[in-house]
Amino acid sequence: MSVKDFRVVVAIDFGTTCSGFAYSHTENHDTAVHSLFPGHTASKTNTVLEYDNNWKAINWGFPALVKAQSRRKKASVNSRPVELFKLHLADIDEESKPYLPRGLNYKTAITDFLNKMQKFMLETLLNRWPSLTLPKIRFVFSVPAEWAPKTRGILRECIYKAGFLTEKYSDNLEFISEPEAAAIFCMSILKEHELKVGDSFMVCDCGGGTVDLTTRTLLPENQLGEVTERTGDLCGSTFVDNEFILFLGRRLGHKAVQEFKENHYGLVQLLIHKFFCPEVKDEFAGNVSTFEPIEFDIQRICPQLMSYVDDERREQMEEDEWIIELQFSDVTSMFDPVVEKIIRLVRNQLNASGEQKCSAIFMVGGFAENPYLVSRVKKTFSRDVHVIAVPQKPITTILKGAVQYGLNKKIVKSRRLTWTYGIEVYVLWKKGVDPKKRKLFNGHIQKFDALAKRGTEASPDQKFCGIYVPFHAIQTSVRFRVLATKKLDARFCDEPGMEEIGCMTVNLGIKNLGLIRPIEFSLTFADEEIKATAWNKLTEEIFETKFDYLTE
After folding, report:
1. pLDDT tens for each residue of 505-518
2. CATH homologous superfamily of domain 417-546?
3. CA-CA distance, 109 to 48, in Å (whole number)?
């Protein structure tokens, strides 16, 4: 669908720690970032839910954070705060995924949060345009660069259940990778740094959960090309929070901290959001000469933690009056494992660019506001890259870029594929080439036929295709099973890391021609969703679909 079919474009940044939305009418292209959420004034609100004992979401965003207990009024025992549920979409092992209370599924949490946001967002939009309806809104959701293909299918399902779409596979929904959205925004500030057509720049999007990178080239007619594959990893600001919790475990006992976390997760949130972030993490600049030790007064800030400490450590803590002094080395030890990971990502992106010189690095996202992270990146790469800058309000760059993409999708001229895509085929088994154990009873073998390989530059509407014929002479239809892998040289459909992302059935029509019934099957990657087309060359029938990504 063309942007002319919509009245309003809305960008949704569903983040690990904070979420927000921005919008623009298609007639004036004036982007507004919403900045007034329940409970506070900010460009984003916390990605947090509060449930009652029946698992009904009763609060979302900032109000869902557990408030500090007073001496007269204890926090409600019925309050169940939940956060970081977006990380359950990441490709990590179960043990590394954030805590979720027993009885709550991560898809339910995502849907509940998006539903609360949808109602609030729609109310905001109707105040501006009272006659606006859902079918006239194009939604652009930004997603991490490293998400597996199936993850967008899971998110689409949650978005649909949350009320954003009238149909699950509606064309009203578009996806864009977070670093690409940030890169589109950064086009508006290239002149400030004297970059011109032909110059390349890197975007390092440092969020709460993920850090995503992309290197882009500014092309004529204000378009973007992609120099390298988008990359990313789980090394956002929440992993500094995790290091703080590990630090407490070393001082108070890991068992004590773990039991406290399991029984009082809301108070752990309080500890992070009301003490660690504002008093330690957010302002840390890494300057030893100006750093002053920070007191963590457990008795004042989190007295419930005291009862979990064993006798041996309790004696020492009582001597210290339940105060832990955070020294400079303590704080750097919380940051450095995360910062070093980000620096490796940047270095790998620069190396992957080869001879294409990177003229600038733009650091965006909420974590890019941290002075220590920025100073470490500048210190490491200032000799190689002339400009290393943080745009104004880096936390809103993805939202603004996603709106611009929704208004003009042609702004992205090409993308590098981050997966290898192909289909399952049955071909004749070849002696000396194919494993004997894979030979089928009829002398054939099942293989993976790659249509588009990882790292390939794909322009909008470019088709990656092959010609295929039926396996049996009497077939009435062909089923195309589409798969994806990170490997460049995958041969078989059951190799580790191979993911099925969708299926498509094509009617063959005429039977009396046997195997001579060619089908041209193609994939296009113009959008952040994959589209498939099959053309029956005999009947001239054309089949098109967006894939129903498998949702586990």
Report:
1. 888 776 666 677 88
2. Substrate Binding Domain Of DNAk; Chain A, domain 1 (2.60.34.10)
3. 9
